[in-house]
Design goal:
Length: about 325
């Protein structure tokens, strides 16, 4: 049976198998699963939807394995999917232009070309548990590319495990943690950003962009440039939709490679990007995971620099913080 149809059948079967997932009777969080993906709710409030099934727009830009919608604290949709200016952008996503094997470009996950995100060959690769104070969703997917022989099975190059931990709202913000683990399934697999001076690629929120969008970094206010800018460990995006304030801060963990990150920022018609590794690709090990950690703070646009920095310090153990950040 074709892999795509095996996955679709598995997804439909799993609609009925939520009883096997781990829940706490006292949990405030719950999940609703469909063939398309998993929606996480706190009580009756929607938090996010994780897209597991491949979707496209008129057969173009096929994508899966990302978050959309991400909801604000008042239920508004904060992210975009298939935006008119960049159809390949999608919600909260993590992707790279370069996916190489033995030095050869095999696919472009950033623009959704020649890439599929397949479940493991055993099981559906999805786990959810709610334990009172938080909800945890784990999804394992293999990045696969076509072979020269169209009749041959797709070639699995990277195993990705993403863990998303949703916390309750506290002090005016909802923390959502992302832990990405990437491992090469074959030797000499490498990933890299765009092969230009911008070098964009990696963890990227595609947010709805209001006219008054503001960028406040750990180092102070930032003005987007064509190329990457310095900003420190976090970036706070805030504005207003129809006089309703909102905000999302993106925090980078100090254990991430090449910390502190550089930022590709856009005030209009694009995504925001914690750019890593840049234009030079890095090789993924086959015996150990590459680990990338991020936290989103979803808020109402009123968090101060001190509040976001305090949240970053809670996210990152003190031993891993630079002396000036403590």
């Amino acid at each position: 049976m074709d892999t795509h149809y095996r996955w679709l059948l598995g997804s439909l079967v799993c609609v009925w198998s939520l009883a096997s997932w781990s829940y706490s009777q006292d949990a405030d969080f719950r999940a609703q699963r469909s063939a398309a993906g998993i929606e996480i709710l706190e009580a009756d409030s929607k938090v996010l939807f994780f897209q597991t099934q491949e979707k496209s727009l008129d057969g173009k830009w096929p994508r899966a394995n990302y978050v959309h919608p991400l909801y604000g604290l008042d239920g508004q949709v904060l992210t975009e999917d298939f935006p008119a200016d960049h159809r390949h952008h999608r919600g909260i996503f993590w992707a790279w232009h370069q996916l190489r094997w033995q030095g050869q470009q095999m696919a472009d996950p950033w623009i959704c070309r020649d890439i599929q995100w397949l479940p493991p060959e055993q099981g559906d690769g999805i786990r959810f548990r709610a334990e009172g104070a938080q909800a945890t969703l784990e999804v394992t997917r293999d990045w696969s590319v076509p072979q020269q022989d169209p009749a041959a099975p797709r070639l699995r190059l990277v195993r990705e495990n993403v863990k998303i931990v949703v916390h309750p709202v506290r002090e005016g913000a909802r923390p959502i943690d992302f832990v990405l683990k990437l491992r090469g399934l074959r030797p000499e697999v490498a990933i890299g950003g765009s092969e230009d001076v911008k070098g964009y690629g990696g963890f990227s929120p595609r947010l709805r962009l209001p006219e008054d969008l503001r960028f406040l970094a750990q180092t102070g206010p930032v003005v987007p440039q064509k190329t990457a800018v310095e900003g420190g460990a976090w970036m706070n995006f805030a504005g207003d939709f129809e006089q309703q304030p909102w905000g999302v801060a993106l925090l980078c963990h100090a254990a991430n490679p090449d910390f502190p990150t550089k930022w590709i920022l856009r005030a209009k018609n694009s995504m925001q990007n914690a750019a890593w590794p840049g234009r030079e690709p890095v090789t993924l090990e086959t015996e150990h995971d590459l680990v990338l950690r991020y936290r989103l703070l979803v808020h109402r646009g009123q968090l101060t620099t001190e509040q976001v920095n305090a949240a970053w310090k809670q996210f990152v153990p003190a031993a891993q913080q630079a002396p000036e950040a403590k």
